[in-house]
Specification:
The radius of gyration is 18 Å and the shape is globular. Helix content is 37%, strand content 25%. By secondary structure, it is an alpha/beta fold. It has ten helices and ten strands. α1 packs across α9 and α9 crosses α10. The relative contact order is 0.23. The chain has two domains: 114 residues, D-Maltodextrin-Binding Protein, domain 2 (3-Layer(aba) Sandwich), CATH 3.40.190.10; 106 residues, 3-Layer(aba) Sandwich (D-Maltodextrin-Binding Protein, domain 2). β1, α1 and β2 form a beta-alpha-beta unit.
């Protein structure tokens, strides 16, 4: 079973896969991570994935409209959150400054995910516009191909601060500090998935979805800052 997954799931999904393999030892399960928009484009061309986990529910719905999804194959699974994030060794007091951390004189580069194909990038831009800061910081922005690369820009020092997924800020050994952007400052990041029409083993894919949406899956996702769909 091959999963195409949004990069914000990188750590949570690996734990979910461990739980899945525990209960389904006969199924080979693996995940490929990327921006939701890029994976969406690949699936429109029938890329060989059985299951799609997007950071934007509209992508699975669009695939369903195009006849590319198994019957009853679309499902919501979480609502994501975004944070302003710096490395542990950063002099910026992000917890106190909040969004104003982006205006700190030491900040030369600000990492966000590319809003063209990354839902977390679109949420970041929307929040910056809501705070009235987008035009002030736009020229200092560096764009990650996906939200995981955006975090890597900050981790490597290529950017001084970033707006990333809460799920990545809460990952083991993330090595950073953050301030959570209030949910009302940007449209909700409604995340959803789809079982593809050409899934090699639809039952295996549905079993994974059942795990993800069940008690164990919900508890695991909540530990990574994901909220339940409204």
């Amino acid at each position: 079973m091959r999963i195409a997954a949004a990069a914000d799931l990188r750590f949570a999904l690996e734990e979910l896969l461990d739980l899945y393999r525990r209960d389904h030892p006969g199924v080979e399960a693996s995940a490929t991570y990327g921006s939701s928009g890029t994976l969406f484009s690949q699936l429109q061309n029938e890329a060989p994935f059985d299951l799609y986990l997007s950071a934007d529910l509209s992508y699975p719905r669009a695939l369903r409209e195009q006849g590319l999804v198994a019957p009853d194959g679309v499902f919501p699974y979480a609502v994501g959150r975004i944070v302003v994030w710096v490395r542990d060794d950063s002099p910026i007091d992000v917890e106190r400054l909040g969004i104003e951390a982006l205006l700190d004189p030491s900040v030369r580069k600000i990492a966000i995910a590319n809003p063209e194909h990354a839902p977390y990038g679109r949420a970041a831009v929307a929040a910056l516009e809501d705070f009235g800061l987008y035009e002030r910081v736009r020229d200092r922005s560096v764009l990650g191909e996906n939200i995981a690369q955006t975090a890597q820009f900050v981790q490597s020092g290529s950017a001084d601060v970033g707006i990333i997924a809460l799920s990545l800020a809460l990952a083991p050994d993330a090595g950073g500090r953050y301030w959570e952007i209030p949910a009302e400052r940007h449209p909700p990041i409604e995340q959803g998935g789809a079982i593809m029409r050409w899934a090699a083993d639809p039952d295996a894919a549905r079993a994974f979805v059942d795990l993800m949406l069940g008690t164990e899956g919900v508890e695991l996702l909540s530990r990574y800052g994901f909220e339940q769909p409204r």
